[in-house]
Amino acid sequence: MDLFLQQILNGIMLGSTYAVVALGLTLVFGILHIPNFAHGHLYMLGGYVTFFFITLLGFGFWTAMISSMIILALIGILVERVVYRPLRDQPHINSFISAIGALMFLETFVVVAWGPQGQRIPNPYPNPVEIGGIILTQQRLLVIIAAIVLIVLLQLFLKKTTPGTTIEAVAQNREGAMLVGINVNRVSSMTFAISTATAAAAASLVAPIFMISPSMGALLGMKAFVIVILGGLGSVPGAIFGGYILGLIEALGGGYISADYKDVFAFGALILILAIRPTGLFGREEVG
Amino acid sequence: MLKLTNVTTVVGGFPAVRDVSLEIKKGEFVALLGSNGAGKTTLFRTIAGVLKPSKGVIEFNGKQLNNLPAHKIVMLGLSLCPEGRQLFPHLSVYKNLMMGAYTRRNDHKGIQLSLEQVYELFPILKERKNQLAGTFSGGQQQMLAIGRALMSKPDMLLLDEPSIGLAPLVVQKIADVIKNISKEMGTTVFLSEQNANMALMITDRGYVLENGKIVLAGPSSELIYNETVKKAYLGA
Ligand SMILES: Nc1ncnc2c1ncn2[C@@H]1O[C@H](COP(=O)(O)OP(=O)(O)OP(=O)(O)O)[C@@H](O)[C@H]1O
Ligand SMILES: [Mg+2]
Questions:
Q1: What is the residue extent of each domain of chain A?
Q2: How far is the centre of ligand 1, averaged over its atoms, from the C-alpha of A198 (Å)?
Q3: Which residue of A127, A173, A186, B70 has the fewest C-beta atoms within 10 A of its own C-beta?
Q4: Which H or E element spans position A64?
Q5: Chain B residue at shortest CA distance from A186
Q6: Taking a C-beta distance cutoff of 8 angstroms, is the pair B216, B50 a contact?
Q7: pLDDT of residue A286 exceeding 60
């Protein structure tokens, strides 16, 4: 029973990061109508920027994380401008190629700057806490709480504010958005900024728990992609639930069967869910 | 108010609008007649800034529109209610209308007034304000699209085939409202239609577009008796 609860908590923690990263990916999907294949790599860079601020500039954990979010927001804007916008009206394959160029650049840049080996951010909150007989470090609890705060804030932004609504409007009808006076390019920049900043937050939050390495972006990007498909492309609730589901599958499969195969469980679940529901868990039929 | 001089628009290598010149004065109510593929939508999208003209000059209130993006043109007071409505299907009716007022988002009082005005024109939008736009019927969606276009409080409204695909009763209702928008609200209206009968009944004058060119122009009361118009559009 304890093992079970322990794995559930681990799953929720993993799922929290996945949910935040997938949320960013799904928002950008709404705008571009293609996945941002460099998303995982931007997440990875976010972890390194936080690492840089802590180890080289001596920032505290929170200051480093917020600085990293700001820097990644700017990089996100740049990526949209340089990698995607010029190819907007061309076949999607061109954007894919351009994105692959960008992600290779990011990974190589990090290898050159910090080396190919993993790095560890010192854990700011290593003390254990006990919840109902389960022991976990404060940092793990923090990941869970911070992710929920981020998700709720993002939802409020999308549903309750005018700039947030413009993101939904552009995703639902680009021409309609232009015709009501929305600057579609500015909304694209804003969406990328939010997406990469939240990815940086997620990477920074888990960096003290797992190592950061230049190759972690590729795997996480792939998983976020899986989640977004699992939840239904472009669906916000789908990305959130898909994130938690994938985290739980990985943690339970890894804990009970074999940790070596946790990614197999994750990707296996994707194939299974898509076989049953091809539009994803929250995929909606076209209306209007 | 709106002046086009020798405007040509090429889409997909094809000149869908050729050498169009026209002028519409403040307060006028003008029809643009043309059959399938005549170029009405292309002309409207060019005026609204969705497409760029390859030749010619478009002026609105003395300001050249040629190189302005669509969102800046709305700010100048020219609003297009587009073909296919282009609503936000997963947003509520209310949010669709609020997005329509995006250019005046800080004028809360003004928005409230416009909202009441739109609700008065189309009471159904008020009754169903929390319903998702995508679940509306064709006629209701058209009403919402017109309402959304009005929320920017335009000086000039372009309506692209609002009657298309609607039942005769609904067409009549929409025609009444458009007339109201022109005559009571004082908005300058440019209405594109294949339904020449409806358009010529309510407008003051009209242009006839064929293969991207304006081939006829005149008061609606005369166009309605014109042989070419009769043959092409009135099934006579
Ligand atoms: N993207 C495009 N590529 C090639 N040709 C196009 C494109 N868009 C429109 N056309 C052509 O331009 C012409 C004018 O089309 P347009 O949609 O402006 O006509 P319309 O008068 O609005 O017609 P309808 O009454 O069917 O809406 C048509 O012959 C159409 O086939
Ligand atoms: Mg048309």
A1: 2-117+151-276
A2: 43
A3: A127
A4: helix A61-79
A5: B71
A6: no
A7: no
What pLDDT sits at residue A288?
Answer: 36
Q: What share of chain B is helix, strand, coil (3-state, %, to 5)?
A: 40, 25, 35
Tokens (6 digits) for A275: 């076989």
For residue B130, the model assigns a pLDDT of 97
Is A180 in contact with B87 (Cβ distance < 8 A)?
Answer: no
Mean pLDDT of B21-38: 95
The span from the CA of B154 to the CA of A223, in Å, is 47
Q: Which of B8, B9, B14 to mutate to test the pocket of ligand 1 (most atoms within 8 A of CB)?
A: B14
Asked if A25 and A239 touch (Cβ cutoff 8 Å), the reply is yes
pLDDT 10s digits, B182-229: 999 999 999 999 999 999 999 999 999 999 999 999 999 999 998 888
Average pLDDT over residues A143-169: 96
d(CA A153, CA B98): 22
Given a contact cutoff of 8 angstroms between Cβ atoms, the answer to whether B115 and B97 are in contact is yes
Atom nearest to B83 CA in ligand 1: 27
Report d(CA B228, CA A17) in Å as an integer.
67
B134 to A287: CB separation less than 8 angstroms, yes or no: yes
DSSP lists the bridge partners of residue B80 as B158
pLDDT value at position B141?
97
* Domains, chain B: 2-233 (3.40.50.300)
Q: Do B91 and A180 touch (CB under 8 A)?
A: no
Mutate to test the pocket of ligand 1, among B11, B20, B33 (most ligand atoms within 8 A of CB): B11
Structure tokens at A106: 């990011």
pLDDT tens track for A36-93: 999 999 999 999 999 999 999 999 999 999 999 999 999 999 999 999 999 988 888 9
**Residue B150, both tokens:** 């009005």
